[in-house]
Amino acid sequence: MSVNLSLTDLPQREGACKHETVSWCPNESVGTPTLSVDSSEPIGVDVTALVVDTGILVTVAAHVNATGVCVRCLTDITRSLDVDHTELFYLPETRDALVREGDEEAEDAFVIESDTLNIEPLLIDAIVPKLPFQPLCEPACPGLCPECGVRLAEAEAGHHHERIDERWSALAGLFDKETE
After folding, report:
1. What angle is formed at CA 120 by the lines to CA 33 and CA 34, rounded to 5 degrees?
2. What distance in Å separates the CA atoms of residue 145 and residue 130, rounded to the nearest whole number?
3. Quick one: CA dihedral 71, 76, 80, 81, positive or negative?
4. 82 closest CA partner among 39, 33, 133, 127
5. Model confidence at 1: pLDDT above 80
6. Segment 51-78, tens digit of pLDDT
7. What is the pLDDT of residues 143-172, one digit of tens each?
8. Interstrand relation of 55-69 and 35-37 (parallel, antiparallel or unpaired)
9. Quick one: how far is CA 63 from the chain centroid?
10. Among 22, 31, 110, 155, which one is most buried in terms of CB atoms within 10 A?
11. What is the dihedral sign for C-alpha 170, 171, 172, 178?
């Protein structure tokens, strides 16, 4: 479900401001494959819209909970994040003038197309960069044992496995016979 901000009650004069709290329930999880904001719970979003000479400056702020797995030990983790993002929604004629002047970034800018603004892209732009690309359960997570897969944080001290290269296995008992 997209989240929209109505502009019908926002005076169209520079400096006019509107603050509103809206509820957003993403259509799908927002984030990375290892850590994302679940789409099952609505998120309260504070939205501020400020009329400026080139359009409307929109700021979104929210507190979200992201869930996922530690990339080293595969333990479930949860992270709480405060996110915020500000974006300018251009008046159509302002954006068109910038494009004619050669501003390549203006081609992808947000434009005021009706009396409502879809602020879902702003929320996604606020959340995704704040999520760690490789989340850890703790900064010093030792991960998993490559031999048996046990979590090294829960393994006994000095956990290791004797591993003899099969090419040398015929020589493994040689030193034992010498000491006899």
Report:
1. 10
2. 30
3. positive
4. 127
5. no
6. 998 899 999 999 999 999 999 999 999 9
7. 888 888 888 888 888 887 777 777 877 776
8. antiparallel
9. 12
10. 31
11. positive
pLDDT band at residue 178 under the 50/70/90 scheme: low
8 neighbors 120 (Cβ within 8 angstroms): no
Give 78-125 pLDDT, tens digit per residue. 999 999 999 999 988 888 888 888 888 888 888 888 888 888 888 988
Stated as kind and residue range, the H or E segment containing 22 is strand 17-24
Q: Three-state secondary structure along 75-114?
A: CEEEEEEEEEEEEEEECHHHHHHHHHCCCCHHHHCEECCC
What 3-state DSSP class applies to 118? strand
**Contact between 86 and 58 (Cβ < 8 Å):** yes
Report whether 77 contacts 137 (CB < 8 A). Answer: yes
Rounded Cα distance, 8 and 31, in Å = 32
Cα–Cα distance list, 81 to 19, 30, 37, 144 (Å): 21, 13, 10, 27
Residue type, 2: S
Is 129 a residue whose pLDDT tops 80?
A: yes
Instruction: Scan for tokens 């494009």, then name that residue.
Output: 99
Q: Per this entry, what is the length of the chain?
A: 180
57 or 9, higher pLDDT: 57
Tokens of 71: 């990339």
